[in-house]
Amino acid sequence: MANFSEDLTWMVVRDTSSFLRKGRFPSATFSCERGNLSGKNSFKFSGLANKRTVDVQPGDGSSLKLTTTAKDFDAVARKPKAMRKTKVLSKSMTAVAKAVSIATADTFYRPDMKRAALAKACTLKEAAKRKAAGVTKGKPARKKWAWGK
Prior knowledge:
Elements: H1 6-16, E1 20-22, E2 29-31, E3 54-58, E4 64-69, H2 80-83, E5 84-89, H3 93-106, H4 114-133
Antiparallel strand pairs: 1-2, 3-4, 4-5
GO cellular component, one term: ribosome
Protein name: Ribosomal eL28/Mak16 domain-containing protein
Domain Ribosomal eL28/Mak16: 8-126
């Protein structure tokens, strides 16, 4: 992957990736690859075609994992374990937002991904909070119909 440009990689991967999830409509094509923040099958969000990727995943309990690709991608391209750097974020949402902002925009890593990363981090943090509180969405109660009355 290190020998090819990002554009060439995208041209190969966009229609033939094993991570594609196609819907009923041709316009709804999603991707579940690592490093894809929004799940959209586009070059901007692709974790396979871009050398610099950002990903936010749920961790243990209410913590989150912020994963970025190493800045010296070409040097570690043949070492998959060293290619990704993971940071555990287990503090409040403001601390998580600050860490995500520093990792994306403030260091000029992927400033275009700041908004998507913050949105996903907020969603995952809220879901962890709901899970810890024991709140679940249940099915609505069935209405009992009185037939013949």
